[in-house]
């Protein structure tokens, strides 16, 4: 329970209960002040009884009852001030008047009522003091002038009324300020709790997103090479006895691809460890994922500097260079690797090659790569056409294969079911359009269109 809630609950119990004190020490203080005020008024009641020609016990009893009214100052401050004003002509209740005015000014009573009652108390004390001082001067055969009597009356009246009223106003304002600050602190605490919950949700979503991105990068890097290795291994098994020279060539290709896949895996794992040396909560650093993408670009295509002459755009884009990840100029080498694995694949480039930005070129490369990998897995021996088109404000790519050649043995590659999902996520994240599905000829087609950001 918050502080404000406890305060409000205590106030509610007080209002509904028999007594009106929120704390025991408040009750002790008020009872003590009431006792002192009753004693004061009882002593002053003796003089009042003499001046009014009343019995002394009656004057003392009147003083006790009137002074004891100070006990209820917290519950009925207006009544206490009215009682003090009423007994002012009897020259009693000075403590009640001071404490009552302070309590009234510090309470939640409207300011207009406080001003009226304070003015009434000031006028009563001023009149009584003026008359008393004038009587004292007359009985002492001393005449300092009318100004002296008025000055003394004003000083005494202001001294008895102004300090408690001003101090009560200050205490009341301070109390209201503290309550306001307490309520604001409770409100901020609730808002911070909500923000913390939302931040935790966003962090969980970010962690999930980063894990998905890392898994997608791992899939893109490993699946294609491993698929080619399996295809070459199947070809090696088929020609091992018939053509030892070709078998040796295929074995060398399998070894090269295996070493490249292991190197890329080792580099990616090293980057992930270096990016987060200590276990911390939160999503994987974005720099680590970007580095994973950069490692994925470390393919044999990096050595083919003449690939750009085949009509594919340079990988250096406005927001990154070749080292940031695979680019469109590596598509030529990617297609050549599939040809070496026995696939009949044709690359068609339409439009004028240009820089499309690192993110767009990486995504376009991954779409082509995943399309070729799916052909190796599910359509052994099928003919493939890879189309790459540069248009105004966008770049389009398509991997289309015909039906599988029944005479070609299936490599038996397993499918993780994440290839098309990963491609769709990549394309839609950049605001592009992704379509995949079977063709009328019995093959399969993967198409994507990516917007090219302005340079």
List the helices and strands and how they pair.
Elements lengths: L2 H14 L7 H28 L4 H12 L9 H10 L7 H13 L4 H29 L6 H94 L4 H32 L10 H11 L34 H10 L3 E7 L7 H21 L4 E9 L2 E8 L17 H11 L3 E6 L5 E8 L4
Parallel strand pairs: 1-2
Antiparallel strand pairs: 2-3, 3-5, 4-5
Helix pairs in contact: 2-3, 4-5, 4-6, 5-6, 5-7, 6-7, 7-8, 7-9, 7-11, 8-9, 10-11, 11-12
EC number: 2.7.13.3
Keywords: ATP-binding, Coiled coil, Kinase, Membrane, Nucleotide-binding, Phosphoprotein, Transferase, Transmembrane, Transmembrane helix, Two-component regulatory system
GO molecular function: ATP binding; phosphorelay sensor kinase activity; protein dimerization activity
Descriptive terms for the model:
455 residues; alpha+beta; Heat Shock Protein 90; 2 domains; 5-stranded mixed β-sheet; disordered N terminus
Textual characterization of the structure:
This protein is an alpha+beta fold and 455 residues long. It has 12 helices and 5 strands. The protein has a 5-stranded mixed β-sheet with strand order 1-2-3-5-4, with helices on one face. A hairpin with a 5-residue loop joins strand 4 and strand 5. Helix 2 runs antiparallel to helix 3, helix 8 packs antiparallel against helix 9 and helix 11 runs antiparallel to helix 12. The longest helix has 94 residues. It is rod-shaped, with a radius of gyration of 47 Å. The two termini are 58 Å apart.
N-to-C CA distance:
58 Å
Overall, the morphology is: rod-shaped
Largest β sheet strand count, sense and barrel closure: 5 strands, mixed
DSSP strand (E) fraction?
5-15%
Q: Report the helical percentage.
A: 55-70%
Number of helices: 12
